[in-house]
UniProtKB/TrEMBL annotation:
One of its GO terms (biological process) is iron ion transport. One of its GO terms (cellular component) is cell outer membrane. It holds the Pfam family TonB_dep_Rec_b-barrel. It is a multi-pass membrane protein. Residues 66-173 form the TonB-dependent receptor plug domain. Its main location: membrane. Belongs to the TonB-dependent receptor family. It is found in: Cell outer membrane. This is TonB-dependent receptor plug domain-containing protein. Keywords: Cell outer membrane, Ion transport, Iron, Iron transport, Membrane, Receptor, Signal, TonB box, Transmembrane, Transmembrane beta strand, Transport.
Length: 820
């Protein structure tokens, strides 16, 4: 693989928020001006007791969160910074039932809401939580790792968003809305954050008005820190190698606003994100006594070089007060190279190196929307959507195994363990080469609302999506076979195992290993490729029905029935699945009480899934399949209480029950523990009633802030506590303990604590803050996999070794930012 260049440019320009307001006590930005009646009502409130609101676009209209009839949470840039949020993963505890898993071999993440998500972060899968930046869909899960900076706000809608957002939004949708250029005045801001693990973040923003009609906004960020996973003795790494968990990210965005006429305006954005960190790696899910959790025996250093370049354009034309047209177009290119230690040294003497030699994902989208006046009794919105994506990727796996005698000799000598098999030892490989995998999607949608009375509004909507997924000439190479690992103590080898032996006279140290960028032929591989050619066409209609009841000016009740679907998957060998479908029933309550001192939002939901999509590694191969169904029900609460002008108590809570319905499946872990194999000797078991992954019965986050007047300014200590009951985090749909590994696939109930102390002068010209994240250094398992099965380690037939991804350890730091 080509060496990974390191970006050394420091960006010192950063963001300032314009016309910022606070929602839900923790703050949300007002992206549009409120109407005269609303503004007058807020002005009548005492300034210290006001809790201003954010405008979101989840309904394809500009509506305040408290007037939006669905479960949506929003935060502005100031709130994100005050909570040390820089990406979606660090936002998780602030949003009810949101979980983000980190992963290693593709630079991506798995996003779950209400226990629903997708565990497939490869080109073979699609996320179940739709991710948008400025309304533009980001199809790859790596997009959710993008840095959050210079935003107007982020909005997170929970539950299916199939009518307005379409496919792959069965669990919810996230939209990052960047701050817009302003023609009002020249302004800017800059900030710097420093912390342990040599954390350094610089960011800045400049807003330049050229005239009353044209303005340019430029924002940039640079964020870097050392890794958190120490190299254990015997690791085969060069001095100075970056540890796993190290980050090196940057982003830059240029936005141009042009008011062509009073009726026509355009916004044009160029957005670039670069990540050159080290990625993540499995840690021992069952560490041995005295073994440091955040450490690993590494023979493949983590390298990552991924970038996302996006060009976006938005045109808004308003010919009359009652009619509005919007066009949104985009082109994006995502590229990646990376390498990862897939076995993480959990079986010394065995090496599994995962490499993306090259990957390029090009996509473009067009969306045309037409809508009526926001204040009319009868409202409508309609649109056309077109999306295309073309994927090209080469992903290789090299596996090697040396004798245990050589391993023990290295350990005894205190030397580095070199997993370089010689004659008579084992080497094999696999290569996935997808040169032309495409998706062509188009949709038409519409939604109408009628204000029946001053209190009652009815809404109905529908969408039809037509998709075409296909793979032309994709190949899987198994060199020479897969899987055919050779457990320790094996004396009689099968033909497949014999074929893996390094043979003399080949001129290669590792006969069948491919190596970075290596050529593959039938002769060098010892096998012929499998064909991934596939062609899948399908159409799906989704719909919505909703009723709103305005009990009082400050209390909104609503009920809805919505549907959604998740695209069927194309798998290895051209295998396909059915689409995942669901129907969701929801009742909501939104309120601003006690003269707006208390905001309380409640949402009860019941979601019924059919043909739920699942992904799991079976016999060292990632498989996509449909579960018969699942039922998810629960209650979410969000609140902010300001009992005085200087006290704020905010938080959220979720009560959740997410279980699979009756369907027969094979328990991969139990099968291995019993010396069986799924698909041959292991029985099928009904998993109906099993709890889904990332679905704790109860979780909550509570945050308290108090303002002290000191030194002509305001000093604000903050404490944020997050608590969850036990949840299942292992792969598969089975909740039972694995024989000999009790609790390994569970994350027991836990509590984390974040602390900060913030100072602002009276004019709020700058902010100084000190913070501690995960103050008690609690290790929380986010994902667990059985590595013997996952990467084909040479384990005994009933032996199991579990690896896990964990949350970040305790970190601390300080931030200084200013506006001008």
């Amino acid at each position: 693989m080509k060496p990974f260049k390191r970006n050394t440019i420091a960006f010192s320009l950063a963001h300032a928020t314009f016309a910022q307001f606070i929602l839900m006590g923790s703050g949300a930005a007002l992206a549009q001006q409120a109407g005269p009646a609303t503004a007058a009502a807020e002005t009548a409130q005492p300034a210290a007791e006001q809790m201003d609101r954010i405008v979101v676009t989840a309904t394809r209209r500009n509506t305040f969160v408290q007037e939006t009839p669905l479960a949506v949470t929003a935060f502005n840039q100031d709130t994100l910074q005050n909570n040390q949020v820089k990406d979606l993963a660090s936002l998780a505890t602030m949003v009810p039932s949101l979980v983000v898993e980190q992963h290693g071999d593709s630079g991506g993440v798995h996003v779950y809401m209400r226990g629903v998500g997708s565990a497939n972060h490869t080109e073979l899968g699609d996320p179940a939580v739709a991710f948008y930046v400025d309304g533009v869909y980001s199809p790859r899960p790596q997009g959710a790792t993008a840095l959050m900076y210079d935003l107007s706000h982020v909005e997170v809608a929970r539950g299916p968003q199939g009518t307005l957002n379409g496919r792959n939004s069965t669990a919810g949708a996230v939209n990052l809305v960047s701050a817009a250029p302003s023609t009002a005045k020249f302004m800017g801001s800059a900030g710097i954050t420093v912390g342990d693990y040599r954390h350094l973040q610089t960011q800045g923003m400049l807003n330049i008005p050229f005239s009353d009609d044209v303005a340019l906004r430029i924002a940039a960020i640079k964020d870097s820190h050392d890794g958190t996973v120490d190299f254990r003795r015997g690791s085969n790494v060069m001095p100075g190698t970056a540890k796993y968990g190290a980050g090196d990210q940057m982003g830059v965005r240029a936005s141009l606003l042009w008011k062509f006429t009073p009726q026509l305006r355009g916004t044009f954005i160029a957005d670039y994100f670069l990540d050159q960190g080290a990625g993540n790696v499995y840690l021992a899910a069952e560490p041995k006594p005295g073994e440091k959790l955040r450490s690993a025996l590494i023979d493949t250093p983590g390298t990552l070089d991924q970038s996302i370049l996006t060009y976006k354009g938005k045109l808004n034309y308003k010919p009359t007060d009652g009619l509005d047209f919007t066009y949104l177009g985009s082109w994006s290119r995502y590229k990646r190279q990376n390498s990862n230690d897939a076995d993480a040294g959990l079986f010394p003497g065995f090496k599994s190196e995962n490499r993306t030699d090259w990957a390029q994902f090009d996509s473009y989208s067009h969306e045309l929307q037409a809508r009526s006046d926001d204040d009319a009794p009868f409202q409508w919105v309609a649109g056309l959507f077109l999306f295309n994506e073309k994927n090209k990727v080469r992903f290789d796996i090299d596996r090697s195994q040396i004798s245990q005698a050589a391993v023990q000799q290295d350990i005894a000598n205190g030397a580095v363990i070199f997993v370089q098999p010689t004659v008579g030892q084992y080497a094999s490989a696999m290569s996935f080469i997808q040169g032309d995998r495409q998706l062509k999607s188009k949709a038409v949608f519409g939604q109408v609302s009628q204000q029946v009375t001053d209190q009652i509004k009815l809404t109905a909507g529908a969408r039809y999506t037509k998709d075409h997924k296909f793979d032309i000439g994709g190949k899987n190479w198994a060199c020479p076979n897969w899987p055919a690992n050779t457990p320790l103590g094996t004396t009689v080898l099968t033909p497949d195992q014999l074929a893996q032996l390094v043979t003399p006279g080949t001129g290669l140290a590792n006969t069948h290993n491919i190596g970075p960028g290596g050529a593959i032929t039938a002769a060098s591989c010892g096998n012929t490729p499998g064909d991934n050619t596939a062609d899948l066409k399908y159409g799906q209609a989704t719909w919505l029905g909703r009723i709103e009841y305005k009990l009082r000016s400050d209390i909104l009740l609503f009920g809805s029935v919505t549907t959604g679907f998740h695209s069927p998957a194309i798998g290895d060998g051209g295998a396909t699945t059915k689409p995942e479908k669901l129907t969701s029933y929801e009742i909501g309550f939104k309120s601003d009480l006690l003269n707006r001192q208390l905001t309380l939002n409640l949402d009860a939901f019941l979601m019924k899934y059919k043909d739920k999509l699942e992904s799991q590694v079976v016999n060292s191969v990632l498989a996509n399949f449909n579960a018969a169904g699942a039922t998810v029900k629960g209650l979410e609460a969000e609140w902010v209480w300001r009992p005085t002008s200087v006290d704020r108590l905010t938080g959220n809570a979720t009560w959740l029950k997410a279980v699979y319905d009756d369907f027969l499946s094979c328990d991969v872990d139990a099968a291995r523990a019993n010396g069986q194999s799924c698909g041959s000797t292991a029985p099928l078991v009904n998993v109906g009633g099993s709890t889904m992954k990332h679905a704790p019965k109860f979780s909550t986050t509570v945050q308290y802030e108090h303002d002290f007047t000191v030194a002509g300014g305001q000093l604000t200590p903050r404490a944020s506590v997050h608590y969850e009951t036990m949840s299942y985090v292992g792969a598969g749909a089975f909740n039972g303990d694995v024989p000999g590994h009790a609790g390994v696939k569970r994350q027991e109930a836990y509590t984390t604590l974040d602390l900060s102390l913030r100072f602002q002068p009276a004019n709020k010209a700058y902010t100084v803050e000190a913070f501690v994240q995960n103050a008690t250094d609690k290790a929380v398992k986010l994902d667990v996999n059985e590595i013997c099965t996952d990467v084909g380690m040479p384990c005994q037939p009933t032996q199991q070794i579990y690896g896990a991804f964990y949350n970040a350890p305790r970190t601390f730091g300080a931030r200084v930012s200013m506006k001008f």
